[in-house]
Amino acid sequence: MNNNTSSGSSYHLMFNNKNGIKVDDEGMKIDCCDKNKKDTTNMNDNNGERIRDRYGYRLRAAGVVMLPGDNPCDPNILLVSGIKNPSNLVIPGGGIEKEEDASEAALREVKEEAGVECDILWSVGEFKVIIYLFND
After folding, report:
1. Res 100: pLDDT
2. pLDDT at 53
3. Which of 112, 113, 117, 126 is the catalytic position?
4. Where does the Nudix hydrolase domain start and stop, copy by copy (predicted)?
5. Strand pairing partners for 40?
6. Where residue 21 falls among pLDDT bands split at 50, 70, 90?
7. Is 134 in a helix, a strand, or coil?
8. What are the sequence ranges of the domains in the chain?
9. Model pTM?
């Protein structure tokens, strides 16, 4: 039996506008990064105030940092150790805080997790984390 569930996180990669787009569990696009809209809520956690959508999922941002490699068509991509499992390599990212948009959050997370200061060149897009559960 195959069962898939959403982890409740949506990653916004290198947005450079004031509003992000989140795809909810039903695949509907919701404008939910505008902190003045009713679709967002602010909740406190251990790391400070984070932005959550109307379903309570924490909105997240991540930054893909690319450096030129030997081949211009094959750049090096910066990865950091995962928090829950340090042996996993992940793209730097984390929750969007109260007074920032997705692009500001992505830049902050890259600096916090990798110590790298960078600029946003373009918006890569967004993706949603899906966890697939298999029962034998």
Report:
1. 87
2. 72
3. 112
4. 57-136
5. 53
6. very low
7. strand
8. 2-64+93-134
9. 0.57
Residues near 55 by Cβ (< 8 Å), separated by ≥ 6?
8, 24, 25
CA distance 99 to 134: 40
pLDDT digits (tens, 9 = 90+) for 90-135: 989 888 888 888 888 889 999 999 998 888 887 776 666 655 667 6
Confidence at residue 19, expressed as pLDDT on a 0 to 100 scale: 38
For residue 135, the Cα-to-chain-centroid distance in whole angstroms is 29
- By DSSP bridging, strand 29-31 and strand 21-23 are antiparallel
Using CB atoms within 10 Å of the CB of residue 2, give its burial: 0 to 12 exposed, 13 to 18 middle, 19+ buried.
Answer: exposed
pLDDT (0 to 100) of residue 102 = 84
Average pLDDT, the chain: 66
Residues whose CB is less than 8 angstroms from the CB of residue 127 and which lie 6 or more positions away in sequence, other chains included: 10, 11, 13
Q: Is 112 a catalytic residue?
A: yes
Given a contact cutoff of 8 angstroms between Cβ atoms, the answer to whether 103 and 110 are in contact is: no
Query: Token pair for residue 29?
Result: 């696009």
CA distance 70 to 5: 40
